[in-house]
Amino acid sequence: MTKHWHEIRDPIHIFVRLDTDERKVLDSRPFQRLRHISQLALTYLIYPGATHKRFEHSLGVMELAGRVFDTITSDQNVTDELRDLVPEIARPDERNYWRRVLRMAALCHDIGHLPFSHAAEDELLPDGWSHERLSRILIENELMTKIWKEMRPPLDPEHIVKVALGARKTKDLSFTKWERILSEIIVGDAFGVDRIDYLLRDSHHSGVAYGKFDHYRLVDELRILPSNEGSTEPALGIAEGGIYSAEALALARYFMFSQVYYHPIRLIYDRHLKDFLVEWLAEGSLFPGGTFPINVEGHLQITDNEVNVALSSAARNPSAKGHEAAIRIIERKHFRVLYERNPTDLALHSSPGEVIAIAAKSKFGETSIRYSKPKIKDIAADFPVRTRDGRVVPAIAISEVLTSLKPMAIDYVFIAPDRLKDATEWLLKERQKILETASKLEKEDKK
User: Fold this and answer.
1) Whole-prediction pTM value?
2) pLDDT digits (tens, 9 = 90+) for 221-271
3) Rounded Cα distance, 111 and 132, in Å
4) Which of 312, 286, 302, 305 is nearest to 114 (CA)?
5) Are 108 and 187 within 8 A, CB to CB?
6) Going from the N-terminus, what domains does the chain have, and what CATH number goes with each?
7) Among the listed residues 359, 364, 374, 354, the one whose alpha carbon sits nearest the alpha carbon of residue 417
8) What are the phi and psi torsion angles at 360 (to 5°)?
9) CA distances from 135 to 33, 108, 306, 358 (A)
């Protein structure tokens, strides 16, 4: 007899459960490809346990999305106020349909990821393309639409796209209030389950404890609330009893970025990987245009496996495209940290890392220096909180923790290992002069 329910053991959520219709999505080629896409690129070269894949992360996001949906639509939480905000929540048939849409959107939100996930995505795809756009194409492709149509009830691929990617990534589509709430469950800045799962999972596999927080309490306290007191715009918020879990989530994100995602050696390995891929893809015989393929079949055929084979081959062949970058990765001859952002240097110049990188390139050569300044991340997002006396207030009005978390600024200059000793001595002598001279020029340019 065929099982109707299937259980998958998971180190984060214990069990991930899905029914036979949902299992068809899991067994599809686009989703199975995620078994071969690293969640954290080359981070395992620093944290050896961080070899987990997008596959299990996506399963975890689906599991969490279902739990959040069940909490915010439970009978005790569906108030008259909520029915006025989002009428769909009061219709049982619609609730069942949208629960399935949400879970499938969560399962498929990452199927467009390139090999090694985020590493240099902007430079490895044609202009205007992103992994979100590839995810959309796959969700709407006949490989998947056949599965959506066979579900009972059938699912609309556009609904899945909207909920999986959110309004910011699908600006050509119009969203109802209900659809915005559902997409917020997955990609929201405050309580997106994509974020919740990757923090917990990355923390577990990297062996770094900073990413752990009480997500059970957090999910139990989530609510759909007016975005402000008296507003008719709904938002995903929290009951006041969950504010400490929400603060812990924000702190976990802060520490995971500082200790793992923006670890300097992880950043330089990402840069070496990007340098390799740019050269490798530029070899016209591989992919037209020198970028990763954007057609469905080409995308499905390229994973970490193919890149790892190419890396190994290039490292053995001095005349191969990307040989130097491959050696840096395969033989762990990565660039070393020459300079990292120091608050005292900000008194001399607004962008000290950039100035020092320019001076170092002039002194030691363009190919010996790499500069890394990742995009600044807002760590804490605001959200509505239902206080114990029934009011709805902004989280930042009642949480000193969330108010104190400022955007993270990272600045690193790296240098080839054989130049490190000379460059360190040079920088020790010249740093002050470099920054003061650049600051003087900056002021003159503003006049």
Assistant:
1) 0.94
2) 999 999 988 888 999 999 999 999 999 999 999 999 989 999 999 999 999
3) 8
4) 302
5) no
6) 5-264 (1.10.3210.10), 335-382+407-447 (3.30.70)
7) 364
8) -70, -35
9) 12, 7, 20, 38
